[in-house]
Amino acid sequence: MITAACLRQWRPGEPLDELFDRELANRESLFGDPDRDTVGALVRLTRTEPDLRAVWLQTYDEAEPAFARALAERAGLPADALRPAIQAAMFNAALRAAVEHHAWRPVDEPADPATARDGLTATVRSALAVVAEGLA
User: Fold this and answer.
1) For 81-135, how does the pLDDT look when each residue is reduced to its tens digit (9 = 90+)?
2) Inter-axis angle of helices 36-45 and 113-135, to 10 degrees?
3) Whole-model pTM?
4) Are 1 and 20 in contact (CB under 8 A)?
5) Counting CB atoms within 10 angstroms of each CB, which of 53, 84, 105, 114 has the fewest?
């Protein structure tokens, strides 16, 4: 997934999807090493298991300040500036919503790993396109 370190390398004027493409080119998958089926099953469980949902949301909550600092640094703003905090919240919510949308979709039969990866990539790309308007 796009990290705070990756956001620091995002060049002004560069489309957000190009940053995503660069990050994908440097990684085997969006999730790294964990088994995609296991990750997908865990994300699906966040819909029905309140304790797991809390951990899932806490993970995103903990990532948001790192995104805000990276965006502030990129823009030459103080780390506690409001604009990068709002941008980080938008970015973080888009990533979470995309992963959940992909995991929660109805599936008649399991997809092969390449198809699943491509589907998740397309979903994240769509989410980033929506949020990019506010990050530019």
Assistant:
1) 999 999 899 989 999 999 999 888 876 666 677 777 788 888 888 888 888 776 6
2) 60
3) 0.78
4) no
5) 114
Token pair, residue 120, equals: 């998740």
Asked if residues 78 and 89 have their Cβ atoms less than 8 Å apart, the reply is no
What HEC string does the chain produce?
CCCHHHHHCCCCCCCHHHHHHHHHHCCCCCCCCCCHHHHHHHHHHCCCCHHHHHHHHHHHHHHHHHHHHHHHHHHCCCCCCHHHHHHHHHHHHHHHHHHHHHHHCCCCCCCCHHHHHHHHHHHHHHHHHHHHHHHC
Q: Which of 54, 109, 76 is nearest to 8 (CA)?
A: 76
